[in-house]
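Weekly modeling sync, notes
Attendees: S.R. (lead), two postdocs, one rotation student

Agenda item 3: backlog of single-chain predictions. S.R. asked that every request posted to the team notebook include the full sequence so nobody has to chase files. The rotation student volunteered to paste the first one in as an example of the format we agreed on. Action items at the bottom.

Example entry:
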Amino acid sequence: MPALREALDQAGYTYDGVAELLGETAHTALSRNETVPGLRRTRGGSPVETLTRLFLLQTPVTGAEAEQALPGLVDRLCNEGLLEQSIGEVAARMDIRPYATDDQDLWVVSDLTPGLDGAPNKVGSDHVLGISSAATSLAQLTLREPVGRALDLGTGCGVQALHLAQHSQQVVATDINRRALWMTELNAQLNGVRPGQIDVREGSFFEPVRGETFDLIATNPPFVISPATDERLVYRDSGLPGDRVVEDIVRAAPTLLNPGGWCQILANWVIPAGGDWADRLEGWITDCDAWVVQREVIDPAGYVELWLKDAGVQGTADYVRRYDTWLEWFEKQGIAGVGFGWINLRRTDATATLRLEEWPYDVEQPIAPSIGAWGEAVDASRGLTDTELLAARPVLRPDVQQETFGAPGAEDPATVVLRQQRGMRRAQDLDTAMAAFAGACDGELTVQQTLTAIATLLEVDPAALVAEKLPAVSGLIADGFLELG
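Predicted structure, as returned to the notebook:
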């Protein structure tokens, strides 16, 4: 693995190197599983072009080209099952994909990407998925503060474990799929992770870590909501009914967290017909702070189509039967839709703070710093009395801007909006009093002093204004517009 890593690095086979080689058009086409633009850009025979054709475009290269790009390694990689040779040609049996964090080039081994150029994308039940949009989303969601012990639950190819290893003393990576664990170990070696830092364990969900605790748990579980059939794909289907896999993780996670520890989950959940998704999920949460964000809602038909395409069933003789069976099961289960989003849990011994909301709008990525800031805000305001809040000296977050809207020539704006430029990028409509309050929040005056001064300017009773606006002040703190020192 060190020799392979050196060869990939020497060839310039990095995320930035490949992106520059392919250019925007071919790079974007490859994200849609189309290889023709990329093939046109990689005809020169250089090592980076050869490796891109071999692994990303899944096109055989000549033996001489492979040997130039991977000097002294071709036979060894064939013996390990990563490559295969025929007369005069070398082809990839597995994907080696360049990946990058903020300050490090990485490479991730996984099974080959199915369905390139419209080919059938049927995969085996133990298929190990590579770097997907879900994996990237979880990486952007996961907190990156230094921790002692972290758990990558359902590790797959191990990309989350690689991230966690950069800021965790010890990482445990679990999976029921033995091939996934083999690839996780392979990727740890390929990327120079300290021996023993990533501890891989076979088993279902929390079974391999029973009785242990962690400072951070990150998981992208097999959350697809489907009827029990024989066509189970381990990387996406748990075998449990409905969204039971997510419920079980949410219920069990607090017992595996150290005080102040986080569990962060990328998940699907059922939206029941005639019911409320937030009430349903809130019933799963105990003994922890929770911030749940529903990012998207998919109707049953769209959901079934999405995952049948993912399984390579579209266009087959079985497509209509499976489509109908799945929709009928949704109807019998009373499922009106499926929600997708984030579940952030933090163990606390104090009175828990729960926040469940829909937010389908654009956010800043990575979003992890906003998750951490929410936790800090909860700690700062937990148990805060009205008297203590009135004595606080809040500060408007630096990225917040004020927008005003109104008819041309009007003396006063009809609407004043505070808008965050970073993080969740929330917007909040304000009345005249609260707009003046937000503008005065520079840490110099207390809430009491600021509201009293505004009441004087507006010629209203100060006590009445304080009583009326104090909940709005709390709301601006909770939504991250204001920070408490």
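Discussion: group reviewed the output briefly. Residues 451 and 466 are 6 Å apart (CA to CA).
Action items: rotation student to repeat for the remaining queue; S.R. to check formatting next week.
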